[in-house]
Amino acid sequence: MSLSPFNLIGLSCQSLVGNPLRSGLSIIGVFMGVAAVSATLQVRNISQAVIAQQLAEGDAPQVGFTPQWNRITRQRSSFNLEDLEFLQRRLRGVQAISGINWMRSSQVVFQDQEATPRMRAVTPNYLETIGQKLVAGRSFTAIDFEQYRPVIIIDQYLAEQLFKGINPLGKNIYIEYRPYVVIGIIPTNSNDDEPTGTIYITTAFHSTMTGNNTISSISIRPQRLEDLQNLEEQGLKLLEQRYPGSKFWSWNTVEDILEQKKTLESVSTALLVVGAISLLVGGVGIANITIAAVIERTPEIGLRRAIGATQKDVMLQFILEAAILSLVGGSLAIVSVHGLTVIVAQRFEFPYTFESRNAAIALSSAVLVGVGAGFFPSLRASQLDPVKALKG
């Protein structure tokens, strides 16, 4: 007659408690392996959170293109709105594309306040391309471009410097004696150590002032971060085909972050391999100790078989012992790694959130290795001849 699951669990626990040294060594082996796997998963999660935080603090990931100066012809190509449409049609994975003209800084006046901010002339979708959200007001519209309206968007720093607590929206400011209406406010660039303020006008209005309808550089925002480098390569090829003989500079705004991400992923992968090896070593330890337990307890196995225990009962008991050792060692490892990670994250101000999914992966791998390691010794124990086992 087979034993109930509760009786099997009770017998397994009694056996493990009766051999504390053997059980302790097995638990330590599993603990080391699961701790290595769990720590690797935590490192990967923290690194991903750090990368996400760095991306969130700056502008959206973008790739940019600017024509190079030809030293022989003393000329360089210029972009225009048709180039934006051309790239939009030919490239895949583009979330937004826009152009910008770099203008010289100009004196800006509002009542008795003055400033000398940076000036930028931008095409539609510029704010979407750089990932900037308005603090107040609105963005440029198609009508602003079609009707050549003298409207501007300023950053918070300039708004504070010029308006001193007055609501800037709808107010007129003068740039080189021309009036402009403030329609929107965006956050100040966090990368500016010493901000001077920034003003954005439409390329349409800029062309009416200068007669120049070209674009200095093109920026492209990908739909996914993984597409950034591919967009940079493909965009460069398309522009060189469109302008034979011309060369272009290309760059992306998160190159350092991407390199950091690759390094962290490589380190995490290497650590995961080490953790897997450690876990397998723990499994080998469980297998060896299970084999030793089978040899040591051969008479006990014979007695149990003689009084009615089935082969399945014997096999399940040894498998349960391996599973319990794995669960205990794995649980201790997860709790320990979590505690240490919390301390380190608080000490160095890293973003950290406990993820039950990673804990489940680490613990499941421990149980799987433990049960797998104890399976064949357990099978051997269940196949022992009761008479020979009693003679043991």
Topology:
Blueprint: H1 5-18, H2 20-57, E1 63-67, H3 81-90, E2 94-103, E3 108-110, E4 113-115, E5 118-122, H4 126-130, E6 136-137, H5 142-146, E7 151-155, H6 156-163, E8 172-175, E9 178-186, E10 198-202, H7 203-210, E11 217-222, H8 228-242, E12 248-252, H9 255-296, H10 298-306, H11 311-348, H12 356-382, H13 386-391
Parallel strand pairs: 5-10, 7-9
Antiparallel strand pairs: 1-11, 1-12, 2-5, 2-11, 3-4, 3-8, 6-9, 7-10, 8-9
Helix pairs in contact: 1-11, 2-9, 2-11, 2-12, 9-12, 11-12
Give a brief outline of the structure.
This protein has about 400 residues and is an alpha+beta fold. Helix content is about 55%, strand content about 15%.
What does the model show?
This protein is α+β, with helices and mostly antiparallel strands. It folds into 2 domains: 184 residues, no CATH class; 190 residues, no CATH class. Strands 1, 2, 3, 4, 5, 6, 7, 8, 9, 10, 11 and 12 form a 12-stranded mixed β-sheet that branches. Strand 8 and strand 9 form a beta hairpin. Helix 2 runs antiparallel to helix 9 and helix 11 packs antiparallel against helix 12. The longest helix has 42 residues. This is FtsX-like permease family protein. It is found in: Cell membrane. Keywords: Cell membrane, Membrane, Transmembrane, Transmembrane helix.
